[in-house]
Amino acid sequence: MITNHFLGLLMLFILQPINALPVAPGNTVNLLGTLQEKDDGRILQRSKRGWMWNQFFLLEEYTGNDNQYVGKLHSNMDRGDGNVKYILTGDGVGSLFLIDENSGDIHATKRLDREERAIYTLHAKVVDKRTNETLEADTEFNIKIHDINDNEPKFSKDLYFASVPEMSDVGTSVIQVTATDADDQTYGNSAKLVYSILQGQPYFSVDSDNGTIRTALPNMDRETKENYQVVIQAKDMAGQMGGLSGTTTVSITLSDENDSPPRFANHTFRLSTLESAEVGAAIGRIKANDADVGRNAEMQYSIVDRNGQDMFTIISDQNTQEGVIRVKKQLDYEKQRTYSFKVEVTNTYLDPRFMYSPNPPFKDDAMVRVTIEDVDEPPVFSRNPYIIEVHEDTAAGSFVGVVSARDPDADNNPVKYSIDRHTDLERLFNIDSVNGTITTLKGLDREMSKWHNISVVATEISNPRQTTRVPVFIRVLDVNDNAPEFAMYYETFVCENVQSGQLIQTISAVDTDEPLVGHKFVFSISSSNPNFTIVDNEGKHLFVICISMA
């Protein structure tokens, strides 16, 4: 019963190293054969040949001046007469571990670090010094390096970057940071980490167990503050006093959400443009502001009343997010000098979550006032072109027709008229410079020219550079001022024995005047020619008939 009790203590020593290192002075642990313990002056022993399993425990980071004592090997073959020798082989023997071959005492020669190596496996045997005979065969045992809390927690990164949408709900996960501790995870609290936040409250919190950072404040607005620097600490010993700690910094950016509507800084825009602006020309830009960024700040502009829609269009410049106003129809200062219309701006992309926020709606409007500036325009003729008719027998200085032009500008400056002499080289016509009356300078002959095409120039008196030309087509009307003529010279021959009534010649006549329905002539024959007669063919032709040749 006593022996069994001692063996139980030995197993407790082995399995609970924290209570049994190193072998205490006053106790002799015989690893070979006999185990002895001093107990009330009595010697307890159990005889058994051979090695028994054991392992030694050694504290890491020893700082003493002498070699660190590890433990003692002993065989029941050792009678204390100095005839046995203990031999040690295995990991680190000779460099890290030394054994006294006479006593079996093992020492460590260097400071050991469990984080570099946690266990060493060695072999021991006993030989007879005189015969070198092996008294006990090789037996394996371990030296385990016992951990102390000598390593602070370390994060995988010195600086983390993370983002979370603005206006996220409280408790939204941002990022998980992880630290590790090189100390023994299975022993004590040396590697049990607790996370805490040193900087970043009240905006963020951290899960003490797993390092997950979460939002801690509602309605965090990127437009108010975009970037946060959060410092997280990991502390070992379960966060208790005296534990080692490490820190890391997390740079957290609030990513943009479309929670800000577009707004005009000014609700009245004043623009001006010349009335001569071409259709499609840009006359000005207006701009609304949106505190969001990226696609959340993209805007669309539109004209919402008819007064502006008829004359102008507006498009959105995707690069500047400005509204560009362009001319839709030709402007006329004399018809309308100012335009006022409403422009509305909305976000291109809307987020339904914020459409019912405290500041709806997600649009704004402004008034645009456009002033049309007058341009000095050239005179405008009442007609283009002019077609005038005049008889050819009109005398020089006679009235031909009138042209009229006016200044379309509001000032209605007077104009003067002239004929482009390159179109009237013969100077057949004249024009009154004040009232535009055209008269003849010479007589006209329709038979020489049926049409006269001239250009009349109207010039603004106050600004001679403003001129306008108009074509004037003058048609010369015919009068019966030319006698008819025979179409040709006729010379007729007839035989002497021609019968009476024989047609001997057909004669035609022409007239250079212009008939309305064709010319009709009256023919006659001289009475001194009784042998011939004529027959009038409806005033068109003359038939010469032989009567007799007597």
UniProtKB/TrEMBL annotation:
GO terms for molecular function: beta-catenin binding; cadherin binding; calcium ion binding. PROSITE patterns: CADHERIN_1, CADHERIN_2. Gene3D superfamilies: Cadherins (2.60.40.60). GO terms for cellular component: adherens junction; catenin complex. The keyword Nucleus does not apply. InterPro entries: Cadherin, Cadherin-like_dom, Cadherin-like_sf, Cadherin_CS. Its main location: membrane. CDD domains: Cadherin_repeat. The keyword Metal-binding applies. It is found in: Cell membrane. GO terms for biological process: adherens junction organization; calcium-dependent cell-cell adhesion via plasma membrane cell adhesion molecules; cell migration; cell morphogenesis; cell-cell adhesion mediated by cadherin; cell-cell junction assembly; homophilic cell adhesion via plasma membrane adhesion molecules; synaptic membrane adhesion. Transmembrane segments: none annotated. SMART domains: CA. Residues 75-155, 156-264, 265-381, 382-486, 486-539 form the Cadherin domain. Pfam families: Cadherin. It is a single-pass type I membrane protein. Residues 1-20 form the signal peptide. Keywords: Calcium, Cell adhesion, Cell membrane, Cleavage on pair of basic residues, Glycoprotein, Membrane, Metal-binding, Repeat, Signal, Transmembrane, Transmembrane helix. PANTHER family: CADHERIN-23, CADHERIN-6. This is Cadherin 10. It comes from Salmo trutta (Brown trout). The lineage of its organism: Eukaryota, Metazoa, Chordata, Craniata, Vertebrata.
